[in-house]
Amino acid sequence: MSALLLPLRPRGLALPEDLRGLTLHALWVQAITVLGKDVENRRWRHIPRAHVGQLVALHAGATVVEHPLGVDLLQRCARRAGWVVQGDHYTRDGREVRLVPSEVPTRAIVGLVRIARARRDSPSPWAMDGSVHLELADLVVLPTPIPCPGMLGWWRVPPAVRVQIKEVLGG
């Protein structure tokens, strides 16, 4: 996968009937959708092979990660991925974006992503030592976040929300 995920807008994307959601702190979801974070790090003992290859809903949780240590970690990872970071400004390859915690969507599905691989030794600059690395591919950013309650771990996206996702994607 390339270093920067490019949002796709596929027509008629085949959503699984049993679409699963994965909740992340909202600022880390922004790192995936805006900065190209291509690995989700989880402190799990076992590698979740059952979800490899599956399309999952990317859910921004209620917590944004405004704590300085969380923001510092995100900025250090972004720098390793080639971003120049100055406060809430991120610049790379002539592209500048802002990640402002108070403006990040929360409690909503913001996109879909395929879990391409799960391992402990990803070469991604976003991979953290000691974590299971869920390598992400085929990112689809929804044009508008869809409000949805989430929960910890893997969870089933409610059927009505799945229908909304499908309608937004033109399917």
Which key phrases capture this entry?
171 residues; alpha+beta; six-stranded mixed β-sheet; three-stranded antiparallel β-sheet; 3 helices; 9 strands; 33% strand; disordered N terminus
User: What is the number of E strands?
Assistant: 9
Radius of gyration: 15 Å
Structural class of the secondary elements? alpha+beta
Q: Assess the beta-strand content as a share of residues.
A: 25-35%
Strand arrangement within the widest β-sheet reads 2-8-7-3-1-9
Helix content: 10-25%
Mean model confidence by pLDDT: 87
What is the distance, rounded to the nearest whole angstrom, between the alpha carbons of the first and last residues?
26 Å
Order of helices and strands: EHEEHEEEEEEH
Summed up, the helix count is 3
Largest sheet: 6 strands, mixed
What gross morphology would you assign?
A: globular
- Which runs of at least 5 residues are low in confidence (pLDDT < 50)? 1-9
